[in-house]
Amino acid sequence: MRKRKFTAVMLFTLAMFPLQIQAQNAAPAATATQPAAEKSFQEKIFQEVVKAPLIMPRSQDDIKADMESAKQEGAAADKKTAAVQEGLNKASQLLQQQKGEMDSLKKKTDLAKKEKRETDKITLEAEKKKADLFQDFLEKYKSLAEAGIDEAKSEKDLAQAQVAAYQAELELAQKREARDKAGDAEFAAASLAASNTQEKALRAFKTVADKNKGVADKLTNIENKRMELFQIRAKLVTGVR
Fold this sequence. Notes:
This protein is 87% helix and 0% strand. It has 241 residues and is mostly helical. The longest helix is centred in the middle third of the chain and has 64 residues, at 118-181.
């Protein structure tokens, strides 16, 4: 799955280091006779850090390419959901058949006990133990398929969140372009529009991060279920209860 690199935060953090070093190596704090120098330093911080973009500018073509990739990931998640649903349907059918087999074995075992057919009873009880294990396998197989569908739907939610975030980022790029081209009379309004759009984009990418975590949690759940299934399968293969 393609994941967007959150370079804005990293670049913002890196930008702080030279300023911190500069502050440490600077002359002693300005006195009342040095107001101009102090103001100049504060203005530099404001320009280089406070006003720095939290979402680094990217070309609109790059943003559109990422948006298209996210749409393709959403379509792939739909196909994955459909494929896993087929597996779930098969598991449900097999489980119902197995339950029928279990009922039949129980009736045969009860009859053997009633008729005191000890050899048959022992044989049927051994078959029932294996059938119990097989039923346990099918139940966990079904549970794994259900978890797979849940995860695939989470991937679709993530892809939709990514599309929304890239749409917001694209809008931000357009607002910044309009701000840069604005005349003196329009500059303040254009700057405010760009700032508001940046906030919208930041919230959208926060949603993407949350969705990413949700997908990761569901993948962990799937791996746990696969391990459980492997352990039961090993017992079936070796005939160990």
